Amino acid sequence: MNETVIPDSTRPAPKMLRSSDSTPLPPSKRLLSGASEQSPSVNPRAKKRKRDSGPRLRPEEEQIFKDLSFFYIPDNDIAPARRLRINKAREYGAIWTRDVLTATHIVVERNLDYKDVEKVTSKAGLNCLPKVVNEDYPVDCIQFRSLVDHSQKKYQIPGQPAVTQQVANVDASAPPSSEESTKSLQLKPKHSDPRRWDYVPRPGTPLRSEESSQRSVVGATPAPMDSQPIALDLGQDATVVPDSSTKGKEHIERRVDDAKDELSEYISMMQEFKDLPLDKEDEHDTRSVAGRSVAESDLLDEIQDSEEEHTRDYKAKRSRLRSGRKETKFEDRFACNQAGEKDANAKNPNARTIEVLQSMASYYDRVNDHWRTTGYRKAMTTLKRQEVKICTEEEAFRLPHIGRRIAQKIEEIVTTNKLQRLEYAEDEPADAVLQLFLQIYGVGNKQAEQWIAQGHRTLDDVVQRAKLTPSQTIGIEHYDDLNTRIPRREVEALGAVVRKAAARIDPEVEIIVGGSYRRGADSSNDIDLIVTKCGTESTGDLRQFLDKLVGGLESDKFLVARLASSRSGSDGSKWHGCCVLPRIKGFNDDESYRATWRRIDFLLVPETEMGGALIYFTGNDIFNRSMRLLASKKGMRLNQRGLYRDALRGPQRNKVSEGELVEGRDERRIFEILGVKWREPHERWC
């Protein structure tokens, strides 16, 4: 048998297993680079940055620029800031067109004017121009997650013909924003400035030495530093009032910051909330900050950093804005001196802004947030005094009682016709439940919040599982009736029934309908009846009459429930209950009659206290509080009994002495002493 010898060179050499074979190391960069260079599948241009690669599109529901085409002037993306804007607009659905004939919007760089636009459009032979806006327009649309009104002056180009501004500040083509997209609006982070007060204790009656030291501290208080605004790119016009309002600048009140000014001497007291972070957002507001991507934050930061106007020193700007102070009489700083008729502000150019801010104030009032409620009310009072529309953050910030946070919200309202923070508040399930419980008679914030904490969400939950007072039980049983406003005509009919019954007992007793009815309101929440008589000096002189009146009206089935009243035999001055208007021929005797429960209050007022009582029980609430605050600043005290002087208060404003009565009988005389212009009841709306 022949054997074939196999040469050693053809045999595979025995291989020893090395540790590197069982656990291979990644190839070196040199090997990788060499392989890529030799690979025919790799395009040499891939080593360069792909400027022409399209950005990653947002989900369809977030594409606010869908079906829109933007033509940019200059028509290139050489500048880094412009490239960022173009890519961000494309990310939200916009088409970057290089043909002006196909554009829906012409976006112009800030340093150009309308002549540059005409050069481009004239070459293209355009008869009807697309919407012409500056570079801030796409940024604001992305910021607010909706198409804002392009005709606003802040988006116009220098030299651009005036555009008729619509009443609604929202683009008609704006698609409805989803719940997810609204949450992504950036809100300002919590304020961390250690120089701003965290609280203001309620002091007692200050000594003269304390007053002087307070004044010196006020004059030396440094201007608070705000954190970065919510990326509202105001550009070069950030500190300039629009052209159309140049004349109106004379009407805009300036901030007062002079230590020698009379207002500065009182600012630690009457404006005690001024320098607090009144609008500092809670932790639940941070959801919108987290919802905004890092890329968006970087985009806006890069855009701002690339422009000189956004690097100005904040202190210098604040100092410049405060120059040109406008002097105002001390008493005119108070809301009671700015009150007017009910519809006096209907034609105010800032009516829509005031309406939205009022909704925010109402929300904070419901949740018992006194600080923010006060801040919003002061801002609204300031806006009501303006004769021109306040459109930008800087215009608002120049005004007294408006801080940086609320100024930003004012610009957001003007720009988008809405406020994201308000939408968040209204969408909170707990707020709807809170409103439901607060409308029960005898339930305040503390009780309502306690029920919510216990898991109650409906009226049935409260009835079945909560311990109720008799008044609260009535409030739930007649919930709909007691929360239905009473027409003015019905208030008059209810008052006539009471006057007729009172005349049978004592013809000299006078019944006056107060509250919103006396201010001329078309409807009221309840009916307030002031019971008085000539020659009376105390409520005890009228108590016996009230007992007889209530007994007679209960026998007539007019009064159907007692909710709160003073004990029998005491000199108490009130009676709260419910009434039902009986059938009256020619008024409510048709088939639609229903015994509707209404809230009614009787208030005993002797003749010596009628002036203070008429002010107190006429309102409105803000007017009354302003009157009492003004009296306090003048060393006096105003309540429902009259105006007093030398009234002392201890810690936490506890009463030490009643003081000496200055005026109680004459309502008009109290106005005169306080230096407030007389206002008829229908002129006391604040």
Automatic annotation (TrEMBL):
InterPro entries tied to this protein: BRCT_dom, BRCT_dom_sf, DNA-dir_DNA_pol_X, DNA_pol_B_palm_palm, DNA_pol_lambd_fingers_domain, DNA_pol_lamdba_lyase_dom_sf, DNA_Pol_thumb_sf, DNA_pol_X
One Pfam match: DNA_pol_lambd_f
Q: Name one GO molecular function term.
A: lyase activity
Catalysis: reaction(s): DNA(n) + a 2'-deoxyribonucleoside 5'-triphosphate = DNA(n+1) + diphosphate
Q: Which EC number applies?
A: 2.7.7.7
Q: Cite the record's Polar residues compositional bias ranges.
A: 175-185
Q: What does this protein do?
A: DNA polymerase that functions in several pathways of DNA repair. Involved in base excision repair (BER) responsible for repair of lesions that give rise to abasic (AP) sites in DNA. Also contributes to DNA double-strand break repair by non-homologous end joining and homologous recombination. Has both template-dependent and template-independent (terminal transferase) DNA polymerase activities. Has also a 5'-deoxyribose-5-phosphate lyase (dRP lyase) activity.
Please give the name of this protein: DNA polymerase
